[in-house]
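Exercise 7. Given the encoded structure of a 200-residue chain, write a plausible sequence.
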C-alpha cells in the first residue's frame, strides 16, 4: 500500500520556512508544510492546500525537486513524499492549530529536531537538484535503519548505461569481409569425369 504525501519548503534568500508540528503524526518535530493527498486532488493541488491550511500562505510558484519513499519496520505501508521548493507566495506565515511556522537561516537548520533522514536530502534540495530517496525507519520513527538518496542525474546516467549494455549484449557481430577469392568450376584446371556404366 502506498500513501501519497506532500512537503513544501519555502525558501527566501538565505532562509527557509519550517514549522513545528503541534499535534498528530510527527508531533514535536520541525518540518515543511504538507500532508496527505486527497482522492480528488492532484499532488500539486494538495501541496498548495496544505500550505494554506497549515501556515496561512498561498503558494504561487513552486517546483518539485524530490520524491522520498519511507516506511517503518514491521509495516507494509509505504509513504511516498513529494517535496517542493516554493520561491513565491502571498500572505504572512501564521500559526495554526496544527503548525507553528518559523524562519531559519540555511546554516542553522535544526536537524536535531527534525525527521532523522531529512538531512540526507536537504543538501540536494537547497542546491536545487532533483533527487529520489528511500528510508527505512525502526518501529519508532526516531531511528533510521537504512537510507539512500541519489540525484536524478545519476539515476538517468545509470539507466543509459544499462540500456547501452543490453543493446551491446544483444547485437550480433558483423560478418567479416571475405579476404580469399573462391574459385569457380570454370578454369579450375580439371574437367568432371563422365560416369561409367557398370560392366562397361
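Solution.
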Amino acid at each position: 500500500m502506498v500513501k501519497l504525501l506532500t512537503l513544501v519548503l519555502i525558501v527566501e534568500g538565505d532562509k527557509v520556512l519550517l514549522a513545528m508540528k503541534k499535534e498528530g503524526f510527527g508531533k514535536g518535530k520541525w518540518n515543511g508544510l504538507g500532508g496527505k493527498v486527497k482522492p480528488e486532488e492532484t499532488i500539486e493541488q494538495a501541496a498548495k492546500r496544505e500550505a494554506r491550511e497549515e501556515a496561512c500562505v498561498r503558494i504561487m510558484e513552486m517546483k518539485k525537486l524530490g520524491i522520498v519513499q519511507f516506511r517503518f519496520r514491521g509495516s507494509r505501508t509505504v509513504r511516498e513524499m513529494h517535496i517542493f521548493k516554493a520561491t513565491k507566495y502571498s500572505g504572512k506565515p501564521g500559526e495554526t492549530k496544527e503548525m507553528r511556522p518559523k524562519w531559519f537561516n540555511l546554516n542553522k537548520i535544526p536537524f536535531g529536531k527534525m525527521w532523522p533522514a531529512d538531512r540526507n536530502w536537504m543538501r540536494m534540495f537547497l542546491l536545487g537538484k532533483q533527487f529520489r530517496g528511500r528510508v527505512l525507519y525502526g518501529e519508532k520513527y526516531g531511528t533510521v535503519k537504512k537510507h539512500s538518496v541519489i540525484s536524478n542525474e545519476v539515476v538517468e546516467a545509470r539507466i543509459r548505461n544499462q540500456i547501452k549494455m543490453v543493446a551491446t549484449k544483444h547485437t550480433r557481430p558483423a560478418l567479416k569481409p571475405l579476404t580469399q577469392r573462391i574459385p569457380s568450376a570454370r578454369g579450375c584446371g580439371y574437367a568432371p569425369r563422365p560416369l561409367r556404366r557398370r560392366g562397361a
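Remark. The two ends are 92 Å apart (CA to CA). Students should compare their own answers with the one above.
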